[in-house]
Amino acid sequence: MRLHAAVSPVARLLVPVARETHRKDFMDDNEYDVAIVLNYYAPYVSGLTIYAQRLAEGLAARGKRVAVVATRHDASLPLREEIAGVSVFRSPLISRIGRGPVSPSFVSLARRVARRSSIVNLHVPMLEAAVISLAVHGRPLVTTHHIDLWLPSGLVNSAALRAVDVSTWICMSRSNAVVVNSVDQAYGSRFRSLLRRRNWRGIAPPCLDRRGGEPGFRDGDGLHIGFLGRIVEDKGIEYLIKAFQLIGDPDARLVIGGDWTSVAGGGIEHRLRPIIGGDERIRLLGLLEGGRIDDFYASIDVFALPSVAESFGIVQAEAMMADVPSVTTDLPGGRSPVLETGFGRRVPPRDPAALARAIAELAALTPEERAEGGRRARRRYGTETFFRAYQELFTQLTPMADNSSVIGAQSPNTLVR
Questions:
Q1: Is the pTM of this model over 0.90?
Q2: What letter does residue 412 receive in the DSSP assignment?
Q3: What does the H/E/C string look like for 229-245?
Q4: Over the stretch 195-217, which tens digit does the pLDDT of each residue have?
Q5: CB crowding 68-103: b at 16 or more within 10 Å, else e
Q6: 209 vs 6, 165, 368, CA distance in Å?
Q7: What letter does residue 30 receive in the DSSP assignment?
Q8: Cβ–Cβ < 8 Å for 245, 272
């Protein structure tokens, strides 16, 4: 067993210094206040895992007893450890089918930890969500729906997509509350008819203020465009490369940060290099972590998120918070930061020409317009609003005599954002 008692850098960013904690808010006789269940957890890197890690460590830093159940995606990781005050339980992985982990003991582990917890929070899409939700008895179930699953075309992927959608539907149907990233995501979801009948909330993901980095990835005075995220097919990176190649300026630069070596389902770096060809203005940076992410935002003039499937994009919201405008595809949920702040542009998916035009428009913004856009983003996407919303929800659903009537009720839609 490997123990990490110190608070992680992420946890330090998520909780103010000397903030008073209130463990009684949703604490009872169970061992854990909250059990967070998902397929992949840190150190795996994706928007979903970053969200779950920030939620878990932020609640722990606020005095809550938090357990996380996930698969052991890396055989070098321990099955049980303590990270930044969070009890992490992992089930052994025996294989993968596409992006999905195969771990026979995952469901039973999740069930055991759930029975020791006051509230269970499932993060979907997750194939096992339905079975786990059926095993949760006598305690509130909150499902955080990150995105409608998207997979590349193919018979196997089509079958997997249908199976995960059925599992998600069953899980949501049994949930006391469902959290989505935004109202826009909910209205554009394949599950919108079900969501209308549930107690659901739109809570924007926790985004960090990453101002103060050094422009270490900058190369000259030309326009710098940046992408940050997993190097996978659904991020639409090839369309960004083609859009950039429409920009003739020899001093322009495209910097692409993100992992392609250890992502579930495999990365597509090998497909991008032939598209890049001999264009030396384009750099693949690999995985960026910690302060290097701050330096990345300090190095670019425009952020681009050309996804073909997206539900929010923490990276683009954090770019905006660092005074960098974002161009993104016009997808429900993924376009929310641009819609809510006005600090960017929306373009159709898979349209390099439109993407190039939007980049040029954003490049022309004045310093004053950038500063004002950053202020709007920081007001909207701080961590305190996120944690306050989750704590209010968990407190509401705690099985106590004075609020037991809300448990299982199909309450009207509750919109935090």
A1: no
A2: P
A3: CCCCHHHCHHHHHHHHC
A4: 999 999 999 999 999 999 999 99
A5: bbbbbbeeebeeeeebbbbbbbbbebeeeeebbbeb
A6: 22, 34, 19
A7: S
A8: no
